[in-house]
Amino acid sequence: MPAPPAETPAPPAAASQALLRNPIGFLLVPEFAVIALASAIEPLRIANRYLREPYRWTLLSDDGEPVVDDNGIPIQPHGSIASAGTLGTLILCADIRPERFYSRSLRGWLHALDRAGATLGALDTGVFLLARAGLLDGCRVTTHWEVIDAFRERFPQIAVAQTLFEVGPRRMTCAGGTAALDMMLNAIAADHGTALAHRVAEHCLHDRIRSGDAAQRMALPLRTRIHHPRLADAVQHLEHTLDRPVPVDELAAHCGLSGRQLLRLFGQHLAEGPAQYHRRVRLEHARTLLRNSSMTVTDAAVAVGFESVAHFCRAYRSQYGRPPGADRRGEGPARPLLRDAR
C-alpha cells in the first residue's frame, strides 16, 4: 500500500480537553454487533496516519478470552478487564440483551473508572449497562431506534433521544452501526480539527460527516417505497400509534380520504389492509419490548393495544411461529461480566 501523502500532522489536543483520551478501551459484551466496533476503530486507525501523538486502543473482555459477536464469530481481545490498567476512555460494545451480563463487580469497575476521570461511552445497547450502573442520570443519551422504547420503559429517569449520537461531559453514546463512524469523526474534529476529520472521512469513502442530531431511520418513502403522500401520511400515523388499534374511518379522516380510497391504496401499494399492516407493526414493537425490557407478556400486550392476552398470544404465534413468552425467556440468565465475589 502506498504511503499517505505528506502533510503537516494535526497538533495533539490537550489531554484534559480531548474527547477521546488515551488509552481507549473497548469492552466487548457477548453478542455485540461487530459493525459498530469496526466503525468506531477504523477512523482512529486512519487518523493515526497524521497524528504526532496517535490514538491508542485496546479490546477487552471480562477474562481475556474470545468474545462471540452476534454473527457467531469469535473476536480475540487484547486482554482482560483485570489487565486493562488505567483508561482514559472506555466504550461498551453490546447488542442483544446486554443486561444479562451486568454484575455488581462490573458496576464497581465502571464507577472506579468514572472517579478516575475516564470518559465513558457506549455503542448500541451498551447504554443499558451504563444506565444500570447509575452513570447516566442527568445525561441525554441515545441507542438504536429499535430499543429506544424499551430503554425508556426500563430507565424513565434518563432522557433518551432518537439521534445518531449524543456527547456530553465525559459521556458519549451512539445508536450503533455506522453511527459509530460519525461519532468518532466528530470526536476527531473536536480533538484535532475538522480538516483531519474530513480527511479521515474521505479515506472511509464517507461523503459527509453526519451531525449527532441527524435522524437514525430512513425517510419513509425510501424505507417503504411509498411515494403517494396521503398513503405515506397514513403509514406514518400507524407507526406512531402503537398503543391501540386505529379504525379505518379514523385513519381515513386523518389522511383526508374516504375509507374505500384508503383500502384501495393499501391494497395497491402494500398488498395488505391497514388493519393487517398496523397489527404487524404493533407485534414487532411488542417483540422488541419483550426482548429488551422487563415487561411481562401481559404488559406487552397492553402496551400495543391488545385487550385480550389470549388474542395477543395467538397473533404473536401466527406472526413469529413461537409464543411471546419464548422471546421473553430469551432474556434468561447468562454469565455476567466481572463475576461477583462470593
Beta-strand share of residues? 5-15%
Structural class computed from helices and strand pairing: alpha/beta
Query: How much helix, percentage-wise, in residues?
Result: 40-55%
Please state the CA-atom Rg, rounded to the nearest Å: 23 Å
Number of strands: 11
Number of helices: 14
List keywords for this structure.
14 helices; 342 residues; globular; single chain; alpha/beta; two-stranded antiparallel ribbon; 11 strands; disordered N terminus
Explain how this protein is built:
There is one protein chain. This protein has 342 residues and is of the alpha/beta class. The chain is 42% helix and 12% strand. Strands 5-2-1-6-7-11-10 form a seven-stranded mixed beta sheet, with helices on both faces. Strands 3-4 form a two-stranded antiparallel ribbon. Strands 8-9 form a two-stranded parallel ribbon. A hairpin with a 5-residue loop joins strand 3 and strand 4.
Layout of secondary structure:
Elements: E1 24-28, H1 34-47, E2 57-61, E3 67-68, E4 74-75, E5 79-80, E6 89-94, H2 104-115, E7 119-124, H3 126-132, E8 140-141, H4 148-154, E9 159-160, E10 165-168, E11 171-174, H5 179-192, H6 194-203, H7 220-224, H8 229-239, H9 248-255, H10 259-270, H11 274-292, H12 297-303, H13 309-320, H14 324-329
Helix pairs in contact: 1-5, 5-6, 8-9, 9-10, 11-12
